[in-house]
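Hello,

Following up on my earlier ticket. Below are the two sequence lines again, exactly as submitted.
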Amino acid sequence: MFDSLISFAFLSQTLRISIPYALPAIGGTFSERGGVANIALEGILLIAAFATTVGTFWSNDPLIGICCGVGAGMVTAFLHGIISVTLKADQIVSGIAINLLAIGVTKFSCQLIFNSSSNSARIVGMEKWNFPSSIPLLENPFVAGTVVVLIIAHVVLFRTRFGLRLRSVGEHPAAAESLGINVSRVRHAGVLISGVLAGAGGAWLAIDQHSFTDGMSAGRGFIALAALIIGKWTPLGAAGACLLFGCAESISIQLQSSFHGLQFIQLIPYIITMFVLAGFIGRSIPPATIGIPYEKEKH
Amino acid sequence: MLALLLSFIIGGVFILLIGKDPFVVYAMFFSQTMGSWYGIGQVLFKATPLIFTGLSAAISFRAGLFNIGAEGQLIIGSFLVAMVGCTFSSLPSFLLIPCALLAGALGGALWGAIPGFLKAKFGAHEVINTIMMNFVAAGVISYLVTNVYSVPATVHTPQITASAELLRLDVFASAFHGSPVNVSLFIALAACGGVYYLLWRTRFGYELRAIGLNPIAAEYGGISIARRTVLTLALAGALAGLVGGNFVLGYKHYYELGFSEGIGFIGIAVALLARNHPIGIVLASIFFGILEYGSLTINTMVPKELSNILQAIVILFMITLTKFLSRWTTHLQECIVQDSNV
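Thanks for your patience. The regenerated structure is below:
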């Protein structure tokens, strides 16, 4: 039984499951490091998955579909940015509303386009890359893409001027502004990056399943949120946590037939997150001004 | 009000987009919801659980806490309501119904108290923890309903005994005939009264509001924030847990997976629209009830998911417009002050 766990199929399944966690989690790191709580990740995933499906359905080209998904993710994130950065409204409530909006808009449009509010038509998937077979896992472009994104994200956040600025507006916006940084603009950038990456995650969901089903994000945005907390608001940590969650879920799928109650494994991310936040397993400290809109001082 | 109006206008644009006349659709929408006692009964049935979750959100907002966990709390609570309702079948109604509701409230309270405890003891943020608890609740209950307390080939628990059922209002008022509005509406209204009394007529309520307004001052004033945090979230959870009365005892008579459909989240919208006041919560719940039932009645013309879109837009307008208007008015005041100084 356990042989099945140590196999190529298991590894590729783990990666497949981890991608839609990891992309929004890495993206969310940028938004939250800049001081904007982003529980809208779930809604962004859902809208992007739908946009990808529609784009692919109409063009018959998954690449165009993915572009649609990423674009839709960006637009949705921009909405969150406008509301919470420009208009300085409550970031959590904005996130909840966007999640509701995502459910409504996708079902509504699905009904109009595919004549069913719960399922879309089947769309074409992506061809595998003809990579040298020595690295077979990379033949899935999304796996390779996620690895690249992860490395870039880490470098950008910790080795570039933009990254430093982003972190500074999340920790101490007033100080950042006194150095001439446009706090709103940098925060907007962080939110948009989260939209692009969560959008890519949503695109993968649709491409992987070859269709859209209502509510197909199925809490992945929240798992991503959990992962970035466990990963202490760093891209590498978040991706590591996602891999762990993907692995746990993979195990539960492999062993489903032989054990009862293995679905409890899927609760592990949530429970670990609570433990981590409480400081039982290494303390995870959020960016200082997360959730707090930045009001300029009166001159 | 402006927010409501604007969101209906945007809703109208959506209806236009799909090539239907918004006036015809809205006419049907309002005549079906408010034009007959049956429609009103349906709206009140939809509003009842929102009153509970609205109160749940409001009471935590008042204490400066954010309870996004109503969804999980009501899942746990409603399941326990159904469990008690079908297990203790020998009890008479006047004992069984309170016991079932109490079990629901306790279950919800426990689910709320855990994030409260983690916040009070370890400073862990309640927003994340209540979200996590939602998923844990959904997972645990879906396991129990499919594997332990299942009726084969369904996703619901066994039927509760007849003595645990709450009466429908059409028993008293035949005008409501056929609509599922039931006695739990009155329980919800009583809960509103209770929350009002608690917040404005008791010491605990005063302390709770003091913490919400200024936690540092409250702590200097000798209020133990930690204990109030746990209690407030437990109370919020208990209110959410009572939702089961409406659906389980009053309507379906069993617990069904996925029955809640985001009631817990819409409760937050209700509380925002009502500015966390119990009377406002009743009105806001009725408004959201109209949206929910109304969108079902126009489903033949417009997909019923219009209600989700409208709900979301109402929330977005509410949180942005209030900010916008308040800034605008302070700006105006500053201008006036400057003018008078000159």
